[in-house]
Amino acid sequence: MSEKTPPVLRESATFDRLTIQEIQRAAETGIYDIRGGGTKRKLPHFDDLLLLGASVSRYPLEGYREKCGTDVILGNRFAKKPIHLKIPVTIAGMSFGALSANAKEALGRGATIAGTSTTTGDGGMTPEERGQSQHLVYQYLPSRYGMNPDDLRKADAIEIVLGQGAKPGGGGMLLGMKVTERVAGMRTLPIGVDQRSACRHPDWTGPDDLAIKIAEIREITDWEKPIYVKIGASRPYYDVKLAVKAGADVIVLDGMQGGTAATQEVFIEHVGIPILPAIPQAVQALQEMGMHRKVQLIVSGGIRNGADVAKAMALGADAVAIGTAALIALGDNHPRLDDELKKIGSAAGFYDDWQNGRDPAGITTQDPELSKRLDPIEGGRRLANYLRVLVLEAQTMARACGKSHLHNLDPEDLVALTVESAAMARVPLAGTSWIPGSQY
């Protein structure tokens, strides 16, 4: 008697297991899912681009004898004291509250060793971070939590935050378990109560008000500090033009692969655009205004290695910013924490519950015992090592393209592997001279 062929189980592409699981979770709890980190879906990214190394038509540079510059000056449009960084990789804004005080100190230490800047984030400036940061950018956010004019003057630059790549158009969250006495005191909040940050600034309704706010901050800081404007990537062509017209010295453009301390899962995965198509739109806006390289462009959202840095700069960025990668460098999601992460329902390489304050690495927590696990000196050393590798990798690629400075990379050094990425990045499809949508 012949055996029956077992039925083939076919999973739905629309209602796959993860979708079914989320529907069931929503039905059981009646609340939306909140998490940290960035989008997990596969998106067009720098991996879809390749750099064209030199051979006969281009002349490469010798790595051991010919220099490849990496420095960048930020904010020389109007500021009396622009920032001169040794490397074009900066640390993005991440708040004390979302991160432990030790983590903020470690970021400052690592950035200083590497010769770059770090950024405060929501909730104000901590003495630990200011004390260990040679170049500190102070974020001025819609919530105004911890905002202090004296701290504006202590900073080396001011970043007015209009949006974030993981949640453009939305505000952040800080759950009550992370609102300790110190965090609550800095933010003027009740201890242990969930906090939601505003999605827009309370004292303006449009770009004209942004110009007024920039002028106010310049007066407060005696025109010394560069003023950045940070936007979440949604409509970068128009947003960049308006920010430049309002008087920004530097534009910070954050793509949807950027991380967040906590927000709705549906927001992270479905709002905004990737950094790959955002950069050319921003560069086009700056070029049309005659402001490319005069108003510097910092891009962020999924920067992982030196190849990403080189490709971003070839597309027209002046510098990049890292957030999630910096936390990983400090020790987030380290394999040695796997057993502890499994006890709280996660695993090394998967942990994204940054909002709940139970991070065994001592980074995204306010628990005093967990926070002690992160040695800020060792964390700073690890971050500095990682930044050094990023820059060395980017230099290696720039030299291979025959460039004596990272800023000399340009779109002609790039090709795309897919039609979609070619259209988004506005570079030729590999093996052709075709740029889809070549009216750009």
UniProtKB/TrEMBL annotation:
GO MF annotation list: glutamate synthase activity
Membrane spanning residue stretches: none
Ranges where the Glutamate synthase domain occurs: 79-331, 360-403
CDD domains: GltS_FMN
Keyword vocabulary terms for this entry: Oxidoreductase
Cited InterPro entries: Aldolase_TIM, GltB, GltB_archl_type, Glu_synthdom
Keyword Nucleotide-binding: no
GO biological process: glutamate biosynthetic process
Protein family: Belongs to the glutamate synthase family.
PANTHER family: ARCHAEAL-TYPE GLUTAMATE SYNTHASE [NADPH] (PTHR43819)
The name this protein goes by in its record: Glutamate synthase large subunit
Source lineage: Bacteria, Pseudomonadati, Pseudomonadota, Gammaproteobacteria, Pseudomonadales
